[in-house]
């Protein structure tokens, strides 16, 4: 019914949903929403700010979105060092400011996600252009302005400049009460649920022939402070003495490991295999077969809670609730502590993950269709 109403009302006006994104995690979590929009016959486009460029085409192909219309606000190399942040941010800001009247004349709503610079830029552009801003994954908080930094500040700014908040559950919704103007839509779960469903399909997860663990470290506070990075690497080396580790390297992490001389040390370690980043579907299957995972990624925490894989989060704080107290725990970069934790981790039983409940992406797409109808 919504599909028919939309086509009757908005087809001639060519109103379009704009997804403004810049990172792999944002693309992964919004891809199921774009697919759900396509199923309703809604027009979609992507403005790409390009913090991450590595394997983006592979991700689009994984989700069947390789034909999605997209326009880049940034044309330079991947932002994998502090020195590239300022020129990247300035180019994105200048490009969007110069062209926002032309670009946004055709948009009925701007959809953004999460807590990055792209999220804030989307909210600012929507407010400046008078176009509704819809924020996916709204309401997550750490309640610590400096940790994670600058993500917590980015979220607060985005809350203030948004019009619609798609929040994943009651806890996140309660964090938005002070923003009275927001239209709050409870998606029940995070859209990562749909991404994992698509990645695994109906496959039964069989245990690997040899046990292994996965490591993924990339956050600013972990890789750009040399003392902490060295402590983390020492902890990972200690873990590799117990279980072989497959270390998936972000480009920024690889660059920092090279600069600090730690990359060669890891390459020489018999228990550590260094892997380049890969497509999302392949990565999820890698995670699903792991004995445990060491990570500092919020999205990984969410994915692994669905997969029921023990997760050691190398952070002091997390704004995510998924898995805490069951599959996930915060850990310090301490080799002794890590050895003790790994020895007591439960063994995951091989089974098909039970990922139930309504589709958050479908809930969002249905609502976006209504937003477009109102804009006609």
Automatic annotation (TrEMBL):
This is UDP-N-acetylglucosamine 2-epimerase. Belongs to the UDP-N-acetylglucosamine 2-epimerase family. It comes from the Bacteria. Residues 41-338 form the UDP-N-acetylglucosamine 2-epimerase domain. InterPro entries: UDP_GlcNAc_Epimerase_2_dom, WecB-like. Keywords: Isomerase. It comes from Chitiniphilus purpureus. Gene3D superfamilies: Glycogen Phosphorylase B. Pfam families: Epimerase_2.
